Amino acid sequence: MSEVFDDRIFRKDELERKKREDYEDWCDRIRAAMKPDYAEMIIAIHLDGMEPCEYAESIGEKPNTLNHRLQRAEKKFKEIFPRTSF
Q1: Is residue 65 part of a domain?
Q2: Cβ–Cβ under 8 Å, residues 63 and 53
Q3: What confidence tens digit (pLDDT) does each residue in 22-80 have?
């Protein structure tokens, strides 16, 4: 393995486990710090990669209304976690 330039291929399970643990940790932190509707929106859109219009449809909201709520949620997120970006 010393000749391998990038050994990530050999540590795939370890890296996937770490990524999943980080995801779960962020979900817990966000849910603990924010209102439930804001937390679920931030997680779905920014962590899970769901499109805002798709999320709006999934909760029965108009996309325009959701965008306003998303902006407020993002502002609150930045107040709570100032050193973190999306």
Answers
A1: yes
A2: yes
A3: 999 999 999 999 999 999 999 999 999 999 999 999 999 999 999 999 999 999 999 99
Residue 2 lies in a domain: no
Query: 66: exposed, middle or buried (C-beta count within 10 Å: 0-12, 13-18, 19+)?
Result: buried
Beta strands, E only, 1-86: none
Domain span holding position 59: 10-80
* 42 part of a folded domain: yes
C-alpha separations of 77 from 43, 71, 85 in Å: 11, 10, 9
**5 domain-assigned:** no
The count of structural domains within the chain is: 1
In this prediction the pTM is 0.81
